[in-house]
Design a protein that fits this description.
Layout lengths: L17 E3 L2 E3 L6 E5 L6 E6 L3 H17 L7 H17 L1 H12 L3 H18 L9 E6 L2 E9 L2 E5 L5 H15 L2 E5 L5 H14 L6 E3 L4 H9 L5 E5 L2 H12 L4 E5 L4 E5 L9 H7 L11 E7 L3 H13 L19 H17 L2 E4 L16 E4 L6 H4 L6 E7 L2 H9 L7 E4 L3 H10 L6 E2 L17 E2 L4 H5 L3 E8 L1
Parallel strand pairs: 7-8, 7-10, 8-9, 10-11, 12-13, 12-17, 13-16, 15-16, 17-18
Antiparallel strand pairs: 1-2, 3-4, 5-6, 6-20, 11-19, 14-15
Helix pairs in contact: 2-4, 2-5, 2-6, 3-4, 3-6, 4-5
Length: 487
């Protein structure tokens, strides 16, 4: 399933300055983030670690740019011209960003290319939002008339995780800038190189001074940014536990907040569809990026009488997955991002066995990998939905197969979760499939396929988050609505 590692990980470009207010400046301290390769465990780059003083400088620059600068006062079309340039500059750096994603996060090169494709899509979409959205409209009512004006919300703190740094940053920043906001981006310490390359693209595009800053840092500095009194809105992607904390901090001062959080998404297989029509998308939907995807299909619900058939098909599919060096073009599954993350996944695998579930494939570390934080793709059978492995987000290449006896039971199981982010329904009868999809309490769901659509509204029900990202719906959270009344 994997072969011995033969490639030595090259070093990435290191940085010695922070991007604050559109300029590369000296950091406030000598603290460094060490970027460790998840495939070789080697130090591959360093960047400055932003501290509270750097946050203060970035927020002050963003505040001044919003209150006094040209960006919020440009027309949406004028801003769109600059966003289109950002997309062009991202395109010029795409190969470097792909390399950074593979090096920092451990994603296979082919997958890195796909994830970075999301970033270019986001900038293209951001540059056309003004053509699909009315920032102003006339309105009349009984006894009066006026104007509805949609204005930028202000200074936006953008906090992103490590599992897709440039794509996630672009999904948030492009609409925020399109709205006329100014932005302070805090990427996770595991993935700062890709976002620094994004900073270079933003610099080259010619954004006005103060509009954008990029501050790689840990959780403590992230909380400081969220609490900052000059931040008007927070947009956060990460775990549900961290999202609760962000929401609580925002509540203290009624700061606007958008949350894109965890998932435990279900894929429901009806009894009328051949598995050969299911496996091309479902077979990889739970283990993409080593399962480090919020929308992964990690619960597979199957008619009880088809469970053995599905397990055989899944095992055959996983047996073809090459686990190994992410630089190898034949690799399909790279390492987990960190030793801590691998330990977490191994603990869930141990817990699943303890709960009575049965490992029918994987469940350990690849024998051939003596370096790197690897886990085999893993299938659990005999899973009941009340087990922790079926209720909690593992964020590793682990899927649970859960049998059901009726469609009503399948819907109940799918909805029996604190999450509601994504999902899939497989049925030959599309009317049946859509009927099931409409009953699932989730923000995005696919029929006879699986994927994340990031240029249309993406976000979650329940504890998977608040608000939507992508498309026109992703622009609206960065705007405030004002009514101007006329006598």
């Amino acid at each position: 399933m994997s072969d011995p590692m033969t490639t030595t990980t090259p070093r990435l470009k290191s940085y010695d300055k922070l991007f604050i207010g559109g300029k590369w400046v000296e950091p406030s301290s000598d603290k460094k983030i060490q970027v460790i390769s998840p495939s070789t465990e080697e130090l591959i780059a360093t960047v400055p670690e932003a501290r509270e003083a750097d946050v203060d400088a970035a927020v002050a620059a963003a505040r001044k740019a919003f209150d006094e600068g040209p960006w919020p006062r440009m027309s949406p079309a004028e801003r769109a011209t600059i966003l289109a340039r950002v997309g062009e500059e991202v395109g010029k750096r795409l190969e470097d960003m792909i390399t950074a994603f593979t090096e920092e996060i451990g994603a296979p090169t082919g997958l890195s290319r796909g994830f970075l494709g999301f970033a270019t899509q986001n900038w293209q979409d951001g540059a056309t939002l003004h053509e699909r959205f009315s920032f102003e409209e006339e309105r009349t009512w009984d006894g009066g008339h006026g104007k509805i004006v949609r204005e930028p919300v202000g200074v936006v703190a953008t906090i992103i995780p490590w599992n897709g740094p440039v794509g996630t940053a672009s999904l948030k920043i492009a609409p925020a800038l399109a709205a006329g906001c100014t932005v302070v981006l805090k990427p996770a310490p595991e993935g700062p190189i890709g976002t620094n390359l994004l900073a270079e693209a933003l610099e080259a595009a010619g954004l006005p001074e103060g509009v954008i800053s990029v501050l790689p840092a840990g959780r403590e500095v992230g909380e400081y940014l969220v609490r900052h009194p000059d931040v008007d809105k927070v947009t956060f992607t990460g775990s549900t536990a961290a999202g609760r904390r962000v929401m609580a901090l925002c509540a203290d001062r009624i700061a606007r907040v958008t949350l894109e959080l965890g998932g435990k998404s279900a894929g429901i297989i009806a009894d009328d569809i051949p598995l050969e029509d299911v496996m091309p998308s479902l077979g990889f939907a739970g283990i993409l990026n080593s399962g480090q995807v919020c929308a992964a299909i990690t619960r597979i619900l199957v008619p009880r009488e088809r469970q053995d058939e599905l397990l055989a098909a899944l095992k055959a599919s996983f047996a073809q997955v090459k686990v190994g060096d992410p630089h190898d073009p034949e690799t399909m599954l790279g390492p987990l991002v960190s030793e801590r993350q691998r330990d977490r996944v191994e603990e869930y695998i141990r817990l699943g066995r303890e709960e009575g579930a049965r490992v029918v494939f994987g469940g350990g570390r690849p024998e051939e990998r003596d370096k790197g934080w690897y886990i085999e793709p893993t299938i659990f059978a005999d899973v009941s939905n009340n087990m922790r492995i079926a209720q909690e987000e593992i964020f590793g290449p682990v899927v649970c197969v859960i049998p059901f006896d009726t469609i009503d039971e399948a819907v109940r199981i799918a909805n029996d979760s604190m999450y509601g982010l994504s999902g899939a329904v497989y049925a030959k009868n599309e009317k049946l499939a859509e009927g099931i999809a409409r009953r699932i309490r989730t923000g995005q769901i696919s029929i006879n396929s699986w994927g994340m659509c990031v240029v249309q509204p993406f976000g979650g029900f329940k504890q998977s988050g608040l608000g939507r990202e992508g498309g026109v719906e992703g622009l609206e959270p960065f705007l405030e609505t004002k009514l101007i009344q006329y006598a």
